[in-house]
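Course assignment 3, question 2. Fill in each field.
Student: A.L.
Task: Predict the tertiary structure for the chain below.
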Amino acid sequence: MKTLANLKPGQTGVVQSITAEGAVKQHFLDMGITRGVRIQLERRAPFGDPLAVRLRGYSLSLRKDEARKICIVD
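Answer field:
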């Protein structure tokens, strides 16, 4: 399964599912990361963590381990 962490800067994908549970999943939902939303990886920090992503017209930062819990399709 392809995850948000697999994207290269500039690539986009559509959220298919979120494998996180509990408070982490609710946090993603509160940030607007829901099934069907298009999300773009803008850039990675020099050592690969955190990741800057763009969705719904705004940017946010996610840790790489969090990005691995967001499954995407092209």
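Instructor remarks: The chain has a mean pLDDT of 94. Residues 55 and 66 are 16 Å apart (CA to CA).
Grade: pending
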